[in-house]
Amino acid sequence: MKKVVIIGGGIAGMTAGVLLQKAGFQTEIYEKNALPGGLCTGWKREGYFIDNCIHWLTGTRPGSGLHGLWKEIGALGDGVELHKKEMFFSSKLDGQVLTFWRDKERTRKEMLALSPEDEKEINKLIDYVSMAESMTVPVEKPFDAMSPIDFIKLGMSMKEMGKVMKEYGMDIQGLAARFKHPLIRRAITDYMPRGYQAYAFLVSYAVVTGGNGDIPRGGSLKMSLRIAEKYKEYGGVLHTNTEVEKIILNGKKAAGILLKNGTKVDADFVICACDTNHTFGKLLPEAYMPGGLKKMYEEKEKYPVSSGFQIAYAVDGVFGELTGTRVFSCEPLKVGSQSVQCMSIQSYDYEPDFAPEGKMVLQSNFTQTEEDYRYWESLYADKEAYRSQKNEIAQAVMERVTTEYPFLKGKIRVLDVWSPITYTRYCNSYQGAYMSFVVTRQAKSITVPGKVKGLDNVLLASQWLMGPGGLPTAVAMGKFAAWRIIKRKKL
To answer: Is 316 left (phi over 0), alpha (psi -120 to 50) or beta?
Structure first.
């Protein structure tokens, strides 16, 4: 029986593990942290639960290959309830509010009432959101293994997406500029970090309107633990609190891995299911990095990354007026290296188990750039100064929350604060990023094959292989790594 060692127990690594165990391989996953899931996780603080990852899970609508894959690995399935998001987000400016509802016709009506002068662009936007609902994530086989017929079938399955990408091939600021009303312009740029292409906004919203972006009950960590349990049911071995030092090479093959504690583990195949910067900076020599990946790391202006500075609050009470994600203007505030004048809060009131009865959890997330990361990285050299700055910002943000929502005064307190450095420490994340590279309008979209040239038995399974990353990309790349190994067995 062939033995496969998987480095990283996140979604990609566990997906590969489940599918390989089903196919008759012997696998072992080595995860540096105490729990599996990678960035798809959460943690407890003072009787509350803080969810780190899922704002929506693409693939919750039955009928797609992605949905089938989530079920196959245990993320979805019988007994897993879904919270149906009723809204994408809302934005407030000068007393006016615009909400992007799950019911897109409700959104259209609200936008037209707000700005009749933008009728043409509003109708076009909503109509194209309907087209974008056809977008899917192909999970049958790796793109470099697809035949011309496969590509034709894929194109036919989401032919409307071509129209969406053609019409909205500008950056997010370009989309906002199409509208006259300041709130509509602000709302569009509120949600997506600078650099994203406009069609990404439509696709994200379409996931919600199409019923394909609901949230599994229990949140991120429970989903990861379900996948881990499925992996173990198939006989897989999951090692937690076990960090890998490097991959042991023998000529053009990997002989196995060396653990940080000095233990050597033999393997017939090695799958690197972790941050690719860590893979080619720590586990393997950088010379093995695929050319497409190297290009994205080097051309930072074309392929930027983003992270977040985040705050979780405990709230004494459950307030329906805070449901969903809400963006509003605030007094200027420095977060990282930048000054911000608007902020968001997200309510987790849909998960009663996240807080004691009669209470709720709110979170704020401020997008952070690579320049911000350098700010936090420098500050982290003095741990006390780092903690002090985080807490100072958190208190200042909380003051702005209570200014916007006066009924929260005396009923809200900070639970936890984390920065881009947290993601680097926890998951070796490049620049603290929790998604892959942003493919800007000036850049060409690059999908990196999950093979390592020059090493016959080393494979990659990571969200970093295809923008914009995230959970759908991670699960797909995990399957593709397993697919390559299974295909070899059949030859």
So the answer is: beta
Rounded Cα gap, residues 474 and 477, in angstroms: 5
Q: Which of 285, 361, 265 is nearest to 316 (CA)?
A: 361
E strand or H helix at 418: strand 412-418
CB half-sphere exposure, 272, CA atoms < 13 A:
30
Q: Over the chain, what is the mean pLDDT?
A: 95
The single residue listed with the structure tokens 């397993």 is 482
Q: For residues 310 and 283, give the distance between their C-alpha atoms in angstroms, rounded to a whole number.
A: 30
* Cβ partners under 8 Å of residue 218, min gap 6: 351, 353
Residue 490 pLDDT exceeds 80: no
Whether the predicted pLDDT of 90 surpasses 90: yes
Residue located via tokens 């947290």: 422
What is d(CA 376, CA 390) in angstroms, rounded to the nearest whole number? 10
Tokens 């809400």 label which residue? 326
**CA distance linking residue 445 with residue 466, whole number of Å:** 8
Going by C-alpha positions, the residue among 320, 324, 332 that lies closest to residue 403 is 332
Contacts of 409 (CB under 8 A, 6+ apart): 402
- What percentage of the chain carries pLDDT values higher than 90? 89
> Cβ–Cβ contacts within 10 Å for residue 370, how many?
18
Q: Where would I find the beta strands (DSSP E) of 103-166?
A: none
pLDDT digits (tens, 9 = 90+) for 242-267: 999 999 999 999 999 999 999 999 99
Enumerate residues 6+ apart whose C-beta is below 8 A from 81. 216, 217
Return the sign of the alpha-carbon dihedral for residues 62, 66, 71, 75. negative
Using the predicted structure, report yes or no on whether residue 400 has a pLDDT greater than 80.
yes
Cα(105)–Cα(127) distance, integer angstroms: 10
pLDDT at 226 > cutoff 70: yes
Query: Residue 172 and residue 201: Cα distance in Å, rounded?
Result: 8
Rounded Cα gap, residues 167 and 172, in angstroms: 13
Is 473 within 8 Å of 57 (Cβ atoms)?
A: no
- Which residues are 360's β-sheet partners? 315
β-partners of residue 6 are: 29, 271
CA 449 to chain centre: 20
Contact 61, 37 (CB under 8 A): no
The span from the CA of 443 to the CA of 457, in Å, is 31
In angstroms, rounded to a whole number, what is the distance separating the alpha carbons of residues 201 and 279?
31
Distance of CA 141 to the CA centre of its chain: 22
Distance between CA 412 and CA 321 in Å, rounded?
15
**DSSP three-state, residue 181:** coil
pLDDT value at residue 192 = 79
Q: Whose structure tokens read 């983003």?
A: 306
Residue 68: predicted pLDDT: 97
Average pLDDT over residues 377-383: 97
pTM: 0.96
Identify the residue whose tokens are 């033999």: 266
